[in-house]
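Appendix B, record 7
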Amino acid sequence: MEMRKIININEDKCNGCGDCIPNCPEGAIQIIDKKARLISDLFCDGLGACIGHCPQAAITIEERQAQEYDEKKVMENIVKQGNNVIRAHLGHLKEHNQAELFSQAIDFLKEKGIENPLKEEGHTDQHKHTASGCPGAKIIDFSAGKKHSEENRHLETRESQLTQWPIQIMLVPPFAPFLNNADLLVAADCVGFAYADFHEALLKGKRLLVGCPKFDNLEVYQEKFNQIFKINDIKSVTYAHMEVPCCFGLVNVINKAIALSGKSIPFKEAVISIKGEIVK
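Structure tokens (predicted):
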């Protein structure tokens, strides 16, 4: 057994809807007794493609002792389900930059004499995004649709609405004076780059905490927010994050910390599309 990232399914939140199933081509999840269950550590790669498809926010990623992920065993299961599932799995690995696992999967297909479905479509290097892949890792260039007129260059420079430092969740101490009696904005770190009106529409009048729910340690974040809400009187919390599945991880962390504090703290989400528009 090794320490690695793997999904955790909150049985109390899960309603057995099954929306996570088609978004786990590896076959790590099944509906058993009307609940989604992780049936084998061997099948779960811990990349979290299923997270954003759970309407109950019942799936999170945790780091714990688990059997090592086995790409060969996963492929043995996947090839039985046909080309569409193979395609989804390969796309999932590529979009998460899992070059070694992708290579193992391709080698398995060659050994079994099975054609690579991405190669058939001409997507060995640049492939179409599949429903089960992670949009957060997909390379997209939509700069061609942006207009940069001369008159925009002469617009008055906007004033920053940032009112404190530091802003990284890991660096802000729970007892920082600026947290008390604050309206708190927790922002996934891509939001400030994607949303052009970030300062005026989201940050103005709030204290800012920034982090990455995909790559940072959510257990550490959980403890940090537990302390922040326990020590301080927080007026409200807004969590601004991108629409991609891997960005939803802090929703459960914040809600749990609010519940543990025993306080009534208003919480809302602001969801930003990858094209920089508010979608929620």
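Remarks on this record: The first helix runs from residue 71 to 78. Residues 121-133 have pLDDT under 50 and may be disordered.
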